[in-house]
Design brief:
about 160 residues, alpha+beta, 7-stranded antiparallel sheet, 3-stranded antiparallel sheet, globular
Length: about 160
Amino acid sequence: MNRRKLLQSLAALTTILALPARAASAKPKLAKSKDEWKQLLPPAAYAVLFEHDTERPGSSALNDEKRPGNYVCAACNQPLFDAAHKYESGTGWPSFYQPLPGALGTATDYKLILPRTEYHCSHCGGHQGHVFDDGPKPTGKRYCNNGVALRFVPQGEALPALRT
């Protein structure tokens, strides 16, 4: 590799690394400060939802949840997934092949240098996880979710009020 090609490659890599950790899509409908969210949420949930942390695989009790119901955002209570769309992906995180209509927004995440598609709650902007193209039919998608970013509401139980 000649010097010019090396410098071009380094410039391209520097540009990628200089990009923000995530390129935001639409603004969430509910805007609270980080301090407000910190007061409302347990530390682990806050770290995942608003600092883009990831919980350890296999650590969520929601992995074993098999009842019918809905999964709502742990921050704002917006319904995100129907339990009928949950499946065992073998990843150690609750996984779904389809979200509820309008429940999620996406952004590009560059934390691992190569771009990934992260998804977040469309109401509060809380980070939920990443979506991949290796899921089951009919969508072929795998929405790999952090358990602490969700709350399960069993069928027949009233959904919690949407946080404002």
